[in-house]
Amino acid sequence: MTDTPLDRIRNFSIIAHIDHGKSTLADRLIQTTGTIAARDMTEQVLDNMEIEKERGITIKAQTVRLAYKANDGLTYTLNLMDTPGHVDFAYEVSRSLAACEGSLLVVDASQGVEAQTLANVYQAIDAGHEIVPVLNKIDLPAAEPDRVKQQIEDVIGLVADDAVMISAKTGLNIEAVLEAIVTRLPPPKGDANATTKALLVDSWYDAYLGVIVLVRVKDGRLRKGQKVRMMSNGAAHVIEQVGVFSPKMRAVDSLGPGEVGYLTAAIKTVADTNVGDTITDDRNPATEALPGFKPSVPVVWCGLYPVDADDFEKLRDSLGKLRLNDASFHYEAESSAALGFGYRCGFLGLLHLEIIQERLSREFDLDLIATAPSVVYQLTRTNGEELEIHNPADMPDGSLIDHIGEPWIKATIMVPDDYLGPVLTLCNERRGRQVELTYVGNRAMAVYRLPLNEVVFDFYDRLKSVSRGYASFDYAMDGYEEGDLVKISILVNNEPVDALSFMAHRSQADRRGRAICEKLKELIPRQLFKIPIQAAIGGRVIARETISALSKDVTAKCYGGDISRKRKLLDKQKEGKKKMRQFGKVEIPQSAFIAALKMDA
């Protein structure tokens, strides 16, 4: 196979806000270049998970090689990376950008620049990309291309006069996008005769081939039979197959500089292939690794427990299999007095958590309970020891804590002027601090610093409801800050229920404690004795509700006679109830747990 000259290769990614048409544009590019036969063409070709097609979102970044014959008569090889738009999957975006030299910035011509458009474009600029603006959906009656071009210039600072105007849905002007890729994006650099260096972009597990590794070759070559070494852990492997995605896997003889493809080498576990690692030749290794990218850090943790305790082994195997294909998902075993054995799992955000939960129930047929999501706190004990706390139940006694640091984020919210008031009120309610507020036309861009703990529950839902769905939101981690935080324990019949304990700011502790006690009062069925439900901070009870006892009429058979006979029976009943309360176990039904955890927001 003859190599494609470097100047005829273009590596590019498509970046945009959610729903601005990335995957549809990818479909049209694949269709226009004839990469897939017309009969095999489906919508969202590159989204191969059932859940992606259903929700219409991209979760995993995908890659495909296109061959395009340009107007200059030459055939170019285009390597396309389709990236997710949702903030939880920004990690996937950073990996794709590291493997490319240019980006298509897709902006909806009716909605304009949104918060995640900004976040992703700044990532691309940081990666040194050349950026071509593309205005999509110009066939819509509400499209305002001139206003959106001006917005791109004002907000992002990109010259948008020569933005390509398309409709990815109807296929209008797709040729112009391909020409722009060829003429306006730079070719990759690299030396075929230098020491082999390839960037490990992604890896996933295949039941037949072992681990499949997605690579971007920078220098040298990768070929079948070659012995390669991972520079981070020194592991050596013999390549069994190299190939490209078009978009099905297609084996080739070798991959040269500037090319994006895959290799398999009978690698058993994905843990052996660190994303961002450098792959080099084992006999003639490179002296210096390529600059990788930061490993993903989970920001939200929650416990996952099987409803049926017998499913614990199945849950362990399922999490292991999911971890094979999702490097950003973390888990560790834990147990709870109320829920039995389960796992503490780390996620990049709430959508990530939701997707993992849904995949566990669909792909592995598991029925799970998830505890309330919590963030990672940095705790300093009075003896100077520092701890990271993932689970509020692990929090030591208050007298041993010197101070607690909570994670903060920098949030960018874009919203039409009409809804700005309620959005600012919501941010202030959540202990937010305004950093800046700017206007572009009739849209406001508010930048706030917010505690992550206030955002992980229902902030996104509330933001959408107060802005009638018009606000867009993006955030980035922004360090830790000392906070006046307390652990609220929930006691049912004087027994602490660890799965329901949570962290809150002292100013909101009473309100949240009261709310969960009231909720549990409705959810826990009545017993033959009184059940107190309490929320406590340390030894101080801040809220209490009592579930009244079911009463049995013990005097029913006592006809007439002295009142003292009835009194005797009632006293006997009271003693019995006291004894029952002392020894009685309150079984909290699973449905009550699930409902209480859902409301804990």
| Tertiary shape | globular
Q: How many structurally independent domains?
A: 5
What is the CATH C-level name of the largest domain? Alpha Beta
Largest sheet: 8 strands, antiparallel
Question: Level of helix content?
Answer: 25-40%
Sequence stretches where pLDDT stays below 50 over 5 or more residues: 44-49, 55-59
CATH topology tier name of the largest domain: Rossmann fold
CATH level-two architecture of the largest domain: 3-Layer(aba) Sandwich
CATH homology-level superfamily of the largest domain: P-loop containing nucleotide triphosphate hydrolases
Task: Give the neighbour order of strands across the main sheet.
Answer: 11-10-16-7-8-15-12-13
Cα Rg: 29 Å
Share of residues in strands: 25-35%
| Count of runs of 4 or more consecutive helical residues | 14
Global mean pLDDT = 78
Which terms would index this structure?
601 residues; alpha+beta; Elongation Factor Tu (Ef-tu), domain 3; Alpha-Beta Plaits; eight-stranded antiparallel beta sheet; 14 helices; 31 strands
Short recap of the structure:
This protein has 601 residues and is of the alpha+beta class. α1 crosses α6.
